[in-house]
Amino acid sequence: MSLRPIDIESRLAVLDLNARYVEAIDEGRFEEWTELFTEDGHYRITTAENVEQGLPLPIMYATSRAMLRDRVKALREANIYEAQRYRHMLGPPRLEPAEGGLRARVNFMVARVMHTGDTSLFATGCYLDRIVLAGGAARFAEKNVILDSRQIDTLLAIPL
Amino acid sequence: MNIHERAWPAEGLTRIPYWIYSDRDVYAEEQANIFRGDTWIFLCLEAELPRPNTYRTSNLGDMPVVVTRDQDGAIHAFENRCAHRGSLLCLKQRGEAREIACVYHNWTYDLTGRLTGVAFRRGVGGKGGMPADSRPDRHGPRQLRVEVFAGLVFGTMSAGVRPVEAYLGPEIAAKIRRVMKAPVKLLGGYSQVLAGNWKVYVENTKDSYHASLLHMFFTTFRLNRLSQKGGLVVSEGGDNHISYSMSADVAGKEYEQAGMRSAQSGYGLEAPELLKSVDEFGDGVGIQILTVFPTFVLQQIRNSLAVRRVVPLGLDRTELAWTCFGYADDDEAMTELRLRQANLIGPSGFVSMEDGAAVGFVQRGIRGADDEESVVEMGGNGTSSEESRVSEAAVRGFWKAYRRHMSL
């Protein structure tokens, strides 16, 4: 099956999806973040070291939007961590056609700002995404967050 | 102040003086008396050296070491330091090699750590080189004594420390064998860098009292029962411990009930498959946390299995290195189950992320409090095994062993 070239509308839809993604996280609207995934969307954070060794261990892992909602509920009501926020900077997505949508590769850097004001470069890496476009809306069917470093400072509570 | 001019509080093991976490001389003495002293330090899983001619780097406290499997399959460990100028020999975390060459001046070693070659030893064109009576091998990397116990590689600089099995004691050895029951399949790893002294994290792993108070995940989602049976085993001497609890229901009903509850009343997990687990040890124990003095942790949280190494990076900085595993004969479904349960552990773990933060909270809280002390009286003042986990007996056990090694 030949895949169609990527039209400009699809490219704009991906840019818009990424903009909404980082806004939802950085502004602490985590419930909205879950809605950017398909119902059976997969979300996984791991390290480049694990990927290069062919090892599957995730740091965070969800196989449905319901699991993402559980993660958010735990962040809100169960887990204890100091108040903090992220600021994401994303690079432009490199897109490839894929069945039912697109594959995207996007570089990111995330600063973590603690309630005390302490600010650090918390994470760098790339997103390897599969995005489906249905009825004009783009959603993540799969989002793999590949961290460049194997080290996490203290904890990773808020999703990346 | 010289640490031997410091006085431990008169109350003994129920008081921990805060200078113990903030004194540079204490840190230096720990490196010599504990990490390079009469202890066994966990270096890596045997499975991390899968073939002959492989190596990985590790640590004995803050001393860098190389662990190798030689061409005959034997495991060795030695200091990661060149005989010549002290440069690191292995720069990568792991690799395959028939020999190890220092990048600085290309001195070479075999995988037992023996110096095998000095570049230009006889000079070039009859000029330069080393004197004929030079003995550079006398400055070679120091060898560790190594023992493999149930797939775990331990190393020590001590000639006198008892063999690993005796060091562990019979109860701890049996519970290590329980988890390391079959050949291991690596699933991966990562590290957390904690903003506190290494002992604060080690105490946390021995502290069965905090589990249901700091980690609210199970309670919030009403997944545990208040009186889950369990217990605390502290080895003679206090060095090693096991804390365990029975699964309320390991057959899967608990997970179904959690789903039903969430559907009916809005609490519980929407996707309880996260916690779906199997009783793979056949004894109903849902959680077993095991520690070996000073810095080894073996974890079974349902079907999430991991070893943790606690590596001091300085007085108030500690690396917590996690390596997670399953068994070689796990099928795809079992691996998937373990990967889902990986959500419980590590830097994002539903029941572990708080530990990373708590270490920093203590280190920040005790600034300026060198002359104050913490109170460790839950469960009395002893270090013996108990049925109740509302006890700090294993924490006191750690300090009992620590003071013995440090002559404090």
List keywords for this structure.
heterodimer; A: 160 residues; alpha+beta; Nuclear Transport Factor 2, Chain: A; 7-stranded mixed β-sheet; 4 helices; B: 408 residues; Naphthalene 1,2-dioxygenase Alpha Subunit, Chain A, domain 1; 2 domains; 23% helix
Short description:
The complex is a heterodimer of chains A (160) and B (408). Chain A is an alpha+beta fold and 160 residues long. Chain A is built from 4 helices and 8 strands.
How does the SSE layout of this entry go?
The complex is a heterodimer of chains A (160) and B (408).
Chain A: H1 8-26, H2 30-34, E1 37-47, H3 48-52, E2 60-62, H4 65-77, E3 84-90, E4 94-98, E5 101-114, E6 119-134, E7 137-147, E8 151-153
Parallel strand pairs in A: 1-7
Antiparallel strand pairs in A: 1-2, 3-5, 4-5, 5-6, 6-7
Chain B: E1 15-17, H1 24-35, E2 41-45, E3 54-60, E4 63-69, E5 75-79, E6 94-96, E7 100-101, E8 108-109, E9 115-117, E10 145-149, E11 152-156, H2 164-168, H3 170-179, E12 184-194, H4 198-206, H5 211-214, H6 217-220, E13 230-234, E14 241-246, H7 253-265, E15 285-292, E16 296-301, E17 304-314, E18 317-327, H8 332-341, H9 353-365, E19 373-375, H10 393-406
Antiparallel strand pairs in B: 1-19, 2-11, 3-4, 3-6, 4-5, 7-8, 8-9, 10-11, 12-18, 13-14, 14-15, 15-16, 16-17, 17-18
Helix pairs in contact in B: 4-10
Q: Can you summarize the main beta sheet of chain A? A: 7 strands, mixed
Question: Mean pLDDT across all residues of chain B, rounded?
Answer: 92
Largest interface: A-B, 37 and 38 residues
Q: Mind telling me the CATH superfamily name of the largest domain in chain B?
A: Naphthalene 1,2-dioxygenase Alpha Subunit, Chain A, domain 1
Do you know the CATH architecture of the largest domain in chain B? Answer: Alpha-Beta Complex
Taken in chain order, the helices and strands of chain A follow as: HHEHEHEEEEEE
Distance between the termini of chain A: 34 Å
